[in-house]
Design brief:
There is one protein chain. It is built from 13 helices and 19 strands. It is α/β, with parallel strands linked by helices. Helix 8 links the parallel strand 10 and strand 11. The chain is globular. Bound molecules: S-adenosylmethionine and iron/sulfur cluster (SF4). The site of S-adenosylmethionine (SAM) has 18 residues, from strand 13. Iron/sulfur cluster binds next to helix 6.
Length: 446
């Protein structure tokens, strides 16, 4: 009988990608993914350490799992609990002190060893948070597409050391997969039904992998090669750093119709003083110039971003500069976070920590502005047509849901036969976070 595996995923798309790969690594052992933790033989909590709140959520989830584990034991069964991801990497053994019922702690670079770790955990608790010299990608099975939209991790880790960020410590040094392994994985995903591939990396546009015939390529060249794969309709990439937005990548936005006209390009702050303290190594004007070049290359490019408010030392003038940058760019959507001091990062030890109520008040103001921009962007689509990749059933019977080229969530009443295809839809109304549409002309499914 298949063993039940439940994976709870926190954080970014890279964690969602890792969770899918963990399930694939465990499949030969008879583990099949279950929708919930109740009755599971193995539960993996794939964690995120980016903000304090995220790590705290993990420990309350572990407490809940503890009760299910006890119930399973009282029925004569056994539920193993594994903690994976960046909290595992950052805390290592210390997780056992707070949650002694955890069986496995495994970091983001060693989850390909899960079969051995599960076997060892039957006897005693085990930790594996190495940064092995051989990349895990060499040991992972060929991925399977799970629906028309797939993630593909091309780059991991980061060498930028922004002063607020734990990624360089939890994910390690920057590593780029070779072009050959990325292209092979992309072809396998397309053969398995993927129409859209999102290339992932903590700093995805820093990708500089081994080229097919020696030397290295940058992300722009890789995208051109991917675009030549028959059957692949859409390419996206995330998350990018402004400094790595090179000419070739900007040109790919101009020349490659498969590259979607939407870019998540975090800026964090509009104040040069704060950008310097964050060690972002660019000024607000540099960001604006990059946006200008991108829009010159692709007129309809829509942008989103990440912002941190209340970074140590941020005053009203700095925050006003952030609001000003937002007004100048005009975002289609963006994420704003209160600064969260992460132990071991340089910013955590800085003077001038901003009081929580000030962070909350600034966050609220920024979110109002970003929300207005997103609503205006969505409203502008009413009455127009858009190509939508219909990738899942909607919440209501007869409804399908998907994404426009600009990452807008779109809902439409449509027959299930057009699920997993790109359809031309007419946008009939807009909500702040989504669009409603009707079918304009039904296309043969891809
Ligand atoms: N590599 C990307 C870049 O350079 O912008 C960002 C990757 S990071 C995993 C995702 C986002 O989390 C960041 O853009 C930042 O806005 C936010 N973040 C990271 N550390 C944070 C912290 N200590 N407090 C609040 N937000 C944080
Ligand atoms: Fe973190 Fe991104 Fe800065 Fe790297 S570039 S340290 S991932 S915020």
């Amino acid at each position: 009988m298949a063993k039940k595996l439940f994976i709870k995923t926190y954080g970014c798309q890279m964690n969602a990608y890792d969770s899918a790969r963990m399930a694939e690594v465990l499949a030969p052992l008879g583990y099949a993914r279950a929708p919930g933790a109740d009755g599971a033989d193995l539960v993996i909590v794939n964690t995120c350490h980016i903000r304090e709140h995220a790590a705290e959520k993990v420990f309350s989830e572990l407490g809940r799992l503890r009760r299910l584990q006890q119930r399973r034991a009282s029925e004569g069964g056994r539920m193993l609990i594994a903690v994976a991801g960046c909290v595992a990497q950052a805390e290592g053994n210390a997780i056992f002190a707070r949650a002694p019922y955890v069986d496995i702690v495994v970091g983001p670079q060693t989850y390909h060893r899960l079969p051995e770790l599960v076997a060892a955990a039957m006897r005693a608790r085990i930790v594996d948070c190495d940064f092995p010299p051989e990349p895990k990608f060499d040991h992972l099975p060929e991925p399977r597409a799970d629906g028309p939209s797939a993630f593909l991790s091309v780059q991991e880790g980061c060498d930028k050391f922004c002063s607020f960020c734990v990624v360089p410590y939890t994910r390690g040094a920057e590593y780029s997969r070779s072009a050959a392994s990325v292209l092979d994985e992309a072809r396998a995903l397309v053969d398995g039904g993927a129409l859209e591939i999102t290339l992932l990396g903590q700093n995805v546009n820093a990708w500089h992998g081994e080229a097919l015939a020696g030397g290295t390529w940058g992300l722009g060249r890789l995208i051109r090669e991917l675009a030549a794969i028959p059957g692949l309709a859409r390419i996206r990439y995330t998350t990018s750093h402004p400094l790595d937005m090179d000419e070739e990548l900007i040109a790919a936005h101009r020349d490659e119709p498969k590259l979607m006209p939407f870019l998540h390009l975090p800026v964090q702050s509009g104040s040069d003083r704060i950008l310097a303290a964050m060690n972002r190594r660019h000024r607000a004007a540099d960001y604006l110039r990059i946006v200008e070049r991108l829009r010159a290359a692709r007129r309809d490019l829509a942008l989103s971003s990440d912002f941190i408010v209340g970074f140590p030392g941020e005053n009203e003038e700095d925050f006003a500069a952030t609001l000003d940058l937002v007004r100048q760019v005009g975002f289609a959507g963006a994420y704003a976070f209160k600064y969260s001091a992460r132990p071991g990062t340089p910013a955590a030890a800085k003077e001038g920590q901003v009081p929580m109520e000030v962070k909350e008040e600034r966050l609220a103001r920024l979110q109002v502005l970003l929300g207005e921009q997103q609503a205006a962007f969505n409203r502008a689509w009413v009455g127009r047509s858009s190509d939508v990749l219909l990738e899942r059933r909607g919440r209501y019977p007869g409804q399908l849901a998907g994404r426009s080229p600009y990452m807008q969530a779109v809902h439409v009443r449509a027959p299930a036969t057009v699920l997993n295809s790109v359809q031309r839809l007419r946008i009939v109304s807009a909500q702040p976070n989504s669009l409603a549409a009707e079918i304009e002309e039904e296309r043969a499914c891809a």
